[in-house]
Specification:
This protein is an alpha+beta fold. It has a domain of 375 residues: Neuraminidase (6 Propeller). Helix content is 11%, strand content 28%. It contains eight helices and 40 strands. Strands 1, 2, 5 and 10 form a four-stranded mixed beta sheet that branches.
Length: 675
């Protein structure tokens, strides 16, 4: 059963596009005329915490206003409490409860008494909630989901990132029981990945401080490089979420000393990340290729194949466009059909009007009887509600051929990389009837991905020619860029400073223009260590590059690229079950001592997860969650090689305002670690 405090999304949501909230809400409407009583209990493990100071807050709204206390009380001898408060008038307000207790309270700034133990539960939007639990599990859930919206112990942020983050916290902990939430505790998560055990280990780390035993050690180990030490357990959880690769082994030592929450890890992870798998309705995702977010943070996902749980049964090309809520459920009415959709690849983007564009690459499993040659010559277009705008055969003007990467600029012009056509198609202001082909001849072969920089110029990767092309805003090929380690380039993304970042697959040959997916599988299946040419290249606005590319062992068949709200760089990998995070050109946003191109994620591993398989895309949502596509299985069977999940690393990146229209923009509201 879904968390009891979640409002089942109404049928009207199926028609929703812009202006609604996806944060989880209570079942009963708020009473604006009388005080609302919120009951609950404060616990550590199975034991109650008496005399805790319990406070209900309304989070700051991201306009500079801080969190506001609505009610305070103390827990009784059995840990129980009741808070009576006036319901906030803002329907987008986010409520949370803190419980401060300490066996060793100490003096903080200005001589105020400070509790080193602050346990937290995020309620969500205003309403009547059943009795809640505040414990270490709910605190870890709040700390990770709200990592990008905390400053000290205060939560604050803008819409929709803050509201969506509140919903994600309920995917980790059930605040009505204090137990693991259903999403984290059951398939495709649960015992299928190590995330549940890592989550319980993090709760055990906090439990040592709650017991009055390990607060000093915890606060020292959780201190992010170059930052002040946390002053309480909620801050510590958020700090661990923001710097998950820091002091990992020592933190695991604290976790191993406690047994309150099980099952737990038996060995230290590479980093303290929380990775959730999402599957929508459970029978729609098969080979997700890329994802794009709308203004409300819902995820639009292009699929390669028609869903089939049997990898040995031939799967033809997908004819659906998936759309998930920020918490991973299928939006009512989705997935969407029509408009010429077939076997979408890496191409999905939203334009400034919220319309969705998808490239029909023609992916299909070996043995499909359909002629892909008739189907890979179009893009599809949908309204913000998922209604097809393009005709039944898709938009076909402008020389579209095996389209892969797509990007809309801020003027609504859509750029299409024609992987099989040695060209891009420029669709000015989204007017498909005016689409024009920009041919490259032999100068750029296998154009795979495209991005738009701060000047409105388009950059396209040439996987077959080891180069990147620069096009003027009007669509003229200005130059190509070689060198700087560019080798079999795949993904490309721009930053807010005018640079573009390129993932060098090394041996990854784009499956177009005579190269089949089976050939790609054969080229990568035996690669078990990082290939020598796997790297990342930065191209400056003038087209120059550093002499050498950026290299670390978090790059393993690198494929997708994304840049977050702090201009740090994220790289997905088609091997190695890892994602890499690099310091970008804005060095002030990086940990102290790092410079451009240095790994922020562990240099030897990246951020690994056994929930990952072969990933193509990586994208950042407005809550700072990092989304990756499990595009292929680790050992792909070519009749149906697709993976079945989106994987979301919770609270790990600086939020991005969506839809993404070229360079990233910081989402509204104060992020916890922004410079």
């Amino acid at each position: 059963m879904r968390h009891r405090n979640i409002l089942v999304l109404s049928a009207a949501l199926s028609a929703l596009s812009v202006g609604a909230s996806y944060a989880q809400t209570p079942g009963a409407p708020p009473d604006r005329h009388e005080g609302v009583a919120q009951r609950g209990v404060v616990r550590s493990g199975d034991g109650p915490l008496a005399a805790a100071r319990v406070t209900l807050y309304q989070a700051g709204d991201g306009t500079g206003s801080g969190a506001r206390a609505l009610a305070r009380t103390r827990s009784d001898a059995r840990g129980r409490f009741e808070l009576v408060y006036e319901q906030p008038s803002d329907p987008k307000a986010v409520l949370y409860v803190t419980a401060d207790t300490a066996k060793r309270p100490h003096r903080g700034r200005a001589g105020h008494r400070v509790s080193p133990v602050r346990l937290t539960s995020v309620l969500g939007l205003p309403g009547r909630y059943p009795s809640i639990v505040v414990n270490e599990r709910t605190t870890v859930a709040a700390g990770f989901a709200m990592a990008q919206f905390t400053k000290g112990s205060e939560i604050s942020g803008g819409h929709p990132g803050l509201q969506n983050a509140a919903g994600v916290s309920h995917n980790l902990a059930d605040i009505s029981t204090g137990d693991v939430a259903r999403v984290l505790g059951t398939a495709p998560n649960g015992d299928r990945t190590s995330t549940l055990r890592a989550f319980n280990s993090l709760a055990n780390i906090l439990a040592g401080c709650t017991a009055g035993e390990t607060c000093d050690e915890l606060f020292s180990l959780a201190t992010p490089p170059g930052r002040s030490a946390p002053r309480d357990t909620f801050q510590a959880a958020a700090d661990i979420a923001r710097a998950p690769g820091h002091d990992v082994q020592a933190l695991f030592g604290l976790a191993s000393a406690r047994q309150e929450y099980r099952p737990a890890l038996t060995s230290a992870p590479d980093a303290w990340t929380i990775a959730l798998r999402y599957v929508g309705n459970g029978h729609e995702l098969d080979g997700p290729g890329n994802v794009a977010f709308d203004a409300e943070g819902t995820a639009w996902i292009a699929n390669n194949y028609t869903f089939d749980p049997d990898p040995f049964r031939t799967a033809c090309g997908s004819r659906i466009l998936s759309r998930l809520t920020p918490t991973g459920e299928a939006v009512p009415g989705a997935p969407y059909r029509g408009g010429g959709l077939y076997g979408a690849g890496y191409g999905v983007t939203l334009d400034p009007q919220g319309r969705v564009w998808v490239g029909n690459f023609g992916f299909q499993g070996a043995g499909c009887p359909l002629d892909a040659d008739r189907l890979y010559r179009s893009v599809s277009q949908f309204t913000p509600n998922g209604r097809p705008i393009s005709p039944p055969r898709g938009w076909r003007r402008g020389g579209i051929l095996q389209p892969q990467g797509l990007m809309s600029d801020r003027e609504g012009t859509v750029w299409v990389a024609n992987c099989g056509g040695r060209s891009v198609t420029r669709i000015p202001h989204g007017r498909a009837e005016e689409a024009r082909k920009v041919p490259f001849g032999d100068r750029i072969v296998k154009p795979f991905d495209v991005t738009v920089d701060t000047r409105g110029r388009a950059w396209v990767t040439g996987n077959g020619t080891d180069n990147v092309g620069l096009l003027s805003p009007s669509g003229e090929l200005v130059r190509t860029v070689e060198g700087g380690g560019i080798k079999r380039p795949m993904g490309i993304a721009s930053d807010s400073l005018g640079n573009v970042w390129v993932s060098n697959g090394g041996v990854v040959v784009a499956p177009c223009e005579g190269t089949t997916p089976a050939m790609l599988a054969e080229a990568v299946v035996d690669i078990v260590t990082r290939h020598v040419d796997a790297s990342v290249t930065m191209i400056r606005p003038d087209g120059s590059t550093p002499r050498k590319p950026f290299v670390n062992d978090g790059l393993f068949l690198p494929w997708g690229m994304a840049v977050d709200g702090n201009d740090t760089v994220w790289v997905s990998n088609f091997g190695g079950r890892r994602v890499a995070n690099l310091c970008g050109a804005r060095v002030s946003a990086c940990p102290p001592g790092l410079t451009t191109g240095d790994p922020i994620s562990p240099a030897d591993t990246g951020y690994t997860s056994d929930g990952l398989e072969r990933n193509t895309a990586v994208q950042i949502d407005p809550s700072g969650n990092v989304w990756l596509t499990n595009n292929w299985r680790t050992v792909p069977v070519q009749t149906n090689p697709g993976g079945y999940e989106m994987v979301v690393l919770v609270g790990l990146a600086a939020p991005v305002k969506t839809p993404l229209l070229g360079p990233p923009r910081q989402a509204d509201g104060p992020g916890g670690h922004r410079s």
